[in-house]
């Protein structure tokens, strides 16, 4: 008789092991369970640490910072970015 043509194993045993004894079941359950735990951890962090409030006069404070930087001859971002390749001698001073 050919080895490839052997009979399949006999499956007459009707007593199956409980579902929790299979490791693959726990791998399938672990993914969603970890996501749920991470979601609750994120919710806890969001409730525990509130976002800081932006000051009411944020625009005025930004203008004051730009004036301070101009006084120290530090250029605002827009001017500095536009003249990044320009030698420092040729950089125009900000208007006062």
How is this fold's topology laid out?
Blueprint: H1 23-48, H2 58-71, H3 77-82
Q: How would you sum up this structure, described in words?
A:
With 96 residues, the protein is mainly α. Among the domains are: 22-48; 53-82, no CATH class. The protein has 3 helices and no strands. It has helices at residues 23-48, 58-71, 77-82. The longest helix has 26 residues, at 23-48.
Brief digest:
The protein has 96 residues and is mainly α.
Individual helix count: 3
Helix fraction, binned, reads: 40-55%
Biggest pleated-sheet summary: none
The termini sit apart by: 101 Å
Give the helix/strand class. Answer: mainly alpha
Q: Report low-confidence residues grouped into runs of 5 or more.
A: none
- The total count of strands amounts to 0
Shape: elongated
- Radius of gyration over all CA atoms, rounded: 35 Å
Query: Could you spell the SSE succession in H and E letters?
Result: HHH
Mean pLDDT: 77
Estimate the strand proportion.
under 5%
What attributes does this structure have?
mainly alpha; 96 residues
